[in-house]
């Protein structure tokens, strides 16, 4: 089971990265329960990929590190995506990463469970989850968990944040576990295997 955290935080340390880590710490073990071994977690820091993201738009090809990040996202069983809020929306770096990903593989997020989260200086920007992030990932065909997590400066250390983290991470883990145990419907090799209706009807008629 693979869980990938995509963090668009710019500072070190970053509250955006901290929120992603807290969400992953709850989701990773929950996704594999009752197995005590948690899911494998990888964190992708977008600030380290900024130059390669920009070059992708000019030359059409991702660099080695960015291509590796794209592969990790595409192969993940679940994603946690976290962005700081800039101008009441996601950051340009965050959007550029997923734009470049969709250009490279437009189906990379199709059907993939995604937990959306954001950080900001004031609670007034909490609507970014539903007005910006949720539509973006719905457009990318991802399955967005019902609960998003927004953390304003005053939320750190408050009771409410832990509750939202637990609920959202649990929803993501449930989706990850459900998809990993799902089995595809059996496929028929050809239409000839289907018994025609006339033959089935004839078999029901009395003989003699």
Automatic annotation (TrEMBL):
Query: What InterPro entries does UniProt report for this protein, alphabetically?
Result: CE1759_FMN_reduct, Flavoprotein-like_sf, FMN_Rdtase-like_dom, NAD(P)H-dep_FMN_reductase
An example Gene Ontology molecular-function term: FMN reductase (NADPH) activity
**Pfam annotation, one family:** FMN_red
Q: Does the keyword Oxidoreductase apply?
A: yes
- The enzyme class is oxidoreductase
Give residue ranges for domain NADPH-dependent FMN reductase-like: 1-156
Q: Give yes or no: UniProt keyword Ribonucleoprotein.
A: no
* UniProt entry keywords in alphabetical sequence: Flavoprotein, FMN, Oxidoreductase
Q: What is this protein called?
A: FMN reductase
Q: What is the organism field in this record?
A: Streptomyces griseomycini
Q: Source organism lineage?
A: Bacteria, Bacillati, Actinomycetota, Actinomycetes, Kitasatosporales
């Amino acid at each position: 089971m693979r869980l990938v955290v995509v963090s668009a935080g710019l500072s070190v340390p970053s509250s955006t990265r901290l929120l992603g880590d807290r969400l992953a710490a709850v989701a990773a073990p929950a996704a594999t329960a009752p197995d005590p071994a948690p899911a494998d977690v990888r964190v992708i820091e977008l600030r380290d990929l900024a130059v390669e993201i920009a070059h992708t738009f000019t030359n059409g090809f991702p660099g080695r590190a960015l291509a590796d990040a794209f592969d990790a996202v595409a192969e993940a069983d679940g994603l946690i995506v976290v962005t700081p809020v800039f101008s009441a929306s996601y950051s340009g770096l965050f959007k550029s990463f997923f734009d470049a990903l969709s250009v490279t593989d437009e189906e990379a997020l199709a059907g993939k469970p995604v937990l959306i989260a954001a950080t900001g200086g004031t609670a007034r920007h909490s609507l970014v989850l539903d007005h910006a992030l949720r539509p973006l990932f719905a457009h990318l065909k991802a399955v967005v968990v019902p609960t998003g997590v927004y953390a304003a400066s005053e939320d750190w250390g408050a009771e409410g944040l832990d509750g939202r983290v637990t609920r959202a991470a649990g929803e993501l883990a449930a989706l990850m576990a459900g998809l990993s145990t799902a089995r595809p419907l059996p496929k028929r090799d050809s239409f000839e295997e289907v018994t025609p209706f006339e033959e089935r009807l004839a078999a029901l008629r009395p003989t003699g």
